[in-house]
């Protein structure tokens, strides 16, 4: 049996290694267009930034090491130019000319290529992507040979990592992002602290604006923004997204959706004997059911492994799971991460949901070093099914997002999150972990114990409601929403007549610092007969969503 | 409605706060025997050690703050001395004499008291527990007034924390633990690195030995061990375990099992209108079904909250979940944590299981700072249900244990762990996270792809098998099992004749550094017709279980 694998990075190499472990006798050939296989593609920005000093670290395996350990036949600089599924033949462009190669089973993991937006001058030699080891080496060479100014086009995960890496090397860095904020899959509440951290690092963030053209110059290029601003650059990183690299296979008859190969739950394409995995395939989102390519290393690796299972022992093969889509990025001293669906995808899918905002510390508040994070959790209206979560903060975000990713895979509701026994000592967490707290808040929302209002609604609510700020007098004085009444939650019961008078029959919309005290006040008010609601996330979320400028001091 | 709560720390205070949020009109009285309510009991060792500098930090709430925020009637120095469930009356010893107090609903959260083993001299004033704020204040006072030598009796979680705290304050510290190793609920493989770390901190660990007597002296006491050794001490910490503090309530007719109150899934005791939660109640272990008290803050807090739900809106109240029993401790620069069942409890429950050992890094190996952890995972034989997990290492242990705790709550199998989408960037994890890897190894064991052997079996296997060490020549030379044959895994296919000759028809038991290379070799050997198995955890586990002394260099 000859298994031929096209593309030797995440999915392809996992498939090859697993196939060998399952079948000592199979002939396993890996065709890689580039110079390197099984390289650390997620490490490239850190090589550019110098945290990974030695480029050899990026090369996790080599063709020689793979032959020795796993008896794999890895052929670099082998580019597949056509496929004939009827005769099971590939045409391969090699350093010594074109070859025909037959297969019994074919696995396609060609990956994706960088999107090239319609920007004049994008073919300047100062423009580069950051997708291969060679890209990273070239970029670091430019940094080490005097580049002083960089522009990063596109502030997705890789763009952000590239911007920070270049800044760490001392360059002046501008980010240009067309979407309203960096890391567009993140909610505004999470992206705002990320933007602030990028600025603290000294990176200029230009969001909500397009790059219109690149003007080549003798010493430097100039990036021209749609508002006419001009930014000089020795180095321009193109990171506006990727597109599946499937033209050859689509031409050969592999069914695709907008260029991404369609696969079934075992990774089979529409052609017999042809499997596919990784960034070039369509995944089904576990939460929304939306179908789209998911360019993440983890799912690609695991899909490759599961395809090998299906090829070599189909009766035991488990289906490739739907995608939860967990992602994470370090930004300076912050971590930002997401799992499951965000607002936009839930709205696109027509799923009704409520959003919870929490600002818990990573560990007990009484233990030194406690620092709060922002957590946003979306739950399904009605039953509280956990649909998605995002977080940002200096510590403990990765842990909570991984727990929530596991909860989403398990089909847990908010109430189920209450029951999780998470590891508690004051060094690591709280007796009520942030995830437990999210469950308590969500469960209260589901059963009606807690009625939330949102910072976005303030403008519409401020006339028709009494905005009641239950923080301390000092907190209130340091900045509050205009027109709000301050009654500290500890004085609410004795000063209820003031609230009564100020409300004048209107609803009461309560707020505090992060939502804990306003919940207590809201419960009291509700039982006293008021139409009351508690602001989700409190003033921390107000500041992120409405900005500081709105506050009265 | 008058709700009376006995005990104002974790479970009791959570019940009180939740009850108020659900019912503004209820009369809620909390009776606390001690001076403090809602104090940070898990923070006490860190106050002793000085990491928490200010004792005020330990007092999360006070009676006054609880009255202001939640209109709770908190009465300290109120000790319940009898209960009459027929007339719904308590007798309470107060600073001003005995009182009668009636209730409509009663919640018992009296907690536990320290076990006092039969050791002569235990009533010395130099012996103290570490269970209250006053204990912690007194202990730190002794440290600050010249105590130089401490002995900690009992190396459970609190004992370990106390020992490290005293060491941080510069004391000479001896730990005495009767069990074969510190932190007895941990497996040997996990406890061995903890013991080494304690010694690195300069703490003397006396394990597998009893303290027989305490001889009072003028300047110092002397702790006498069962082998006759004598250890001087200015300060002796007693932390050999706890017992539910329930004599009053058992006498009143609350059904108990070995002193712990029996409760149903809503926290109801055998007496009408009497609920109980926390350390003084029996929990059902989710994995083994074993019933025993679980002295953990998280479950206590949540049970208190759920009892308030059942009292005030029984139709909506969710059951209190069975206990997964997750626990964690920092030891110097290490974290040790556990969730679910350990070997001993699985054996006690008669559950057949396989154990997986992994030594993954906390994040991508190519990113600077990668350090390996030890993970032990028990899975049910046959279906691979995840039964329990433990870990120890410098970074990332808490995250993996929390994810595994969530997986246990979800009823996940090893195969399900493969599918988890955990947050990956080289800073935070690997494309195949340690939890995914545990799933892959476990799934391979379940379906027979991977046959494991264990370090404990070495003595029995060494004659009847060829022990094949597939590490590099240099690794082998640095220390290997006597009588083992070295063929690096990269040379296995070409040197198979050597293996054939050495095996001479016997089974082949393969090992490497941590189990990855031996798995590859094992798969090749199996397909070549050998009776082969791969050592779970490799040499790292050999060193932990058999010790370094056995190795040949």
TrEMBL record, chains A, B:
InterPro entries per the UniProt record, alphabetical: FAD-bd_OxRdtase (IPR050260), FAD/NAD-bd_sf (IPR036188), FAD/NAD-binding_dom (IPR023753), FAD/NAD-linked_Rdtase_dimer_sf (IPR016156), Pyr_nucl-diS_OxRdtase_dimer (IPR004099), Rhodanese-like_dom (IPR001763), Rhodanese-like_dom_sf (IPR036873)
Keyword annotations from UniProtKB, A to Z: FAD, Flavoprotein, Oxidoreductase, Redox-active center
SMART domains recorded: RHOD (SM00450)
Record-level Gene Ontology MF annotations: oxidoreductase activity
Record's signal peptide: none
One Pfam family, short name: Pyr_redox_2
Membrane spanning residue stretches: none
PANTHER family, per database record: NAD(P)H SULFUR OXIDOREDUCTASE (COA-DEPENDENT), PYRIDINE NUCLEOTIDE-DISULFIDE OXIDOREDUCTASE DOMAIN-CONTAINING
Name of this chain's protein: FAD-dependent oxidoreductase
Species: Leucobacter insecticola
């Amino acid at each position: 049996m000859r298994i031929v694998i096209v593309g030797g990075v995440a999915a392809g190499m996992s498939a090859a290694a697993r196939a060998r472990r399952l079948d000592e006798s199979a002939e396993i050939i890996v065709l890689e267009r580039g110079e390197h296989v099984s390289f650390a593609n997620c490490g490239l920005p850190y090589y550019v930034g110098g945290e990974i000093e030695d480029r050899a670290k990026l090369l996790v395996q080599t063709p020689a090491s793979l032959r020795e350990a796993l008896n794999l036949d890895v052929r670099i600089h082998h580019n597949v130019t056509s496929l004939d599924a009827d005769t099971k033949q590939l045409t391969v462009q090699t350093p010594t000319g074109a070859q025909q190669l037959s297969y019994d089973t074919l696995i396609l993991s060609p990956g994706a290529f960088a999107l090239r937006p319609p920007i004049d001058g994008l073919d300047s030699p100062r423009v580069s992507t950051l997708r291969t080891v060679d890209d990273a080496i070239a970029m670091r060479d430019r940094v080490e040979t005097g580049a002083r100014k960089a522009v990063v086009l596109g502030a997705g995960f890789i763009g952000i990592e590239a911007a920070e890496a270049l800044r760490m090397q001392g360059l002046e860095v501008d980010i240009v992002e067309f979407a309203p904020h960096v890391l567009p899959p993140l909610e505004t509440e999470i992206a705002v602290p990320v933007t602030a951290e990028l600025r603290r690092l000294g990176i200029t963030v230009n969001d909500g604006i397009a790059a219109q053209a690149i003007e080549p110059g003798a010493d430097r290029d100039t990036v021209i923004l749609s508002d006419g601003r001009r930014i000089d650059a020795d180095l321009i990183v193109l990171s506006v997204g990727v597109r599946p690299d499937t033209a050859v296979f689509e031409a050969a008859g592999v069914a695709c959706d907008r260029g991404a190969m369609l696969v079934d739950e075992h990774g089979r394409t529409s052609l017999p004997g042809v499997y596919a995995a990784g960034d070039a395939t369509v995944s089904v989102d576990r939460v929304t059911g939306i179908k789209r390519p998911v360019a993440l290393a983890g799912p690609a690796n695991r899909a490759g492994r599961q395809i090998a299972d299906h090829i070599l022992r189909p009766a035991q093969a488990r289906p490739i799971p739907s995608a939860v889509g967990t992602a994470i990025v370090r930004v300076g001293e912050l971590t930002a991460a997401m799992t499951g669906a965000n607002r936009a995808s839930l709205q696109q899918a027509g799923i009704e949901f409520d959003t919870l905002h929490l600002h818990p510390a990573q560990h007990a508040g009484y233990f030194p070093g406690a620092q709060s994070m922002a957590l946003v959790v979306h739950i399904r209206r009605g039953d509280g099914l956990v649909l998605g979560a995002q977080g940002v903060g200096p510590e403990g975000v990765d842990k909570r997002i991984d727990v929530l990713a596991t909860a989403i895979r398990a089909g847990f509701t908010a109430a189920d999150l209450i029951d999780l026994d998470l590891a508690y000592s004051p060094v690591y967490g709280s007796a009520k972990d942030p995830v437990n707290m999210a469950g308590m808040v969500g469960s209260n929302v589901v059963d009606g114990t807690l009625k939330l209002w949102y910072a976005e609604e303030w403008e519409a609510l401020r006339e028709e409601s009494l905005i009641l700020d239950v923080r301390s007098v000092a907190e209130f004085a340091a900045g509050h929403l205009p027109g709000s009444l301050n009654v500290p939650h500890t004085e609410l019961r004795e000063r209820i007549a003031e609230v009564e008078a100020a409300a004048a029959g209107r609803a009461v919309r309560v707020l505090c610092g992060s939502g804990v005290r306003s919940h207590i006040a809201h419960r009291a008010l509700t039982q006293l007969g008021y139409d009351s609601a508690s602001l989700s996330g409190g003033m921390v979320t107000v500041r992120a969503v409405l900005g500081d400028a709105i506050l009265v001091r």
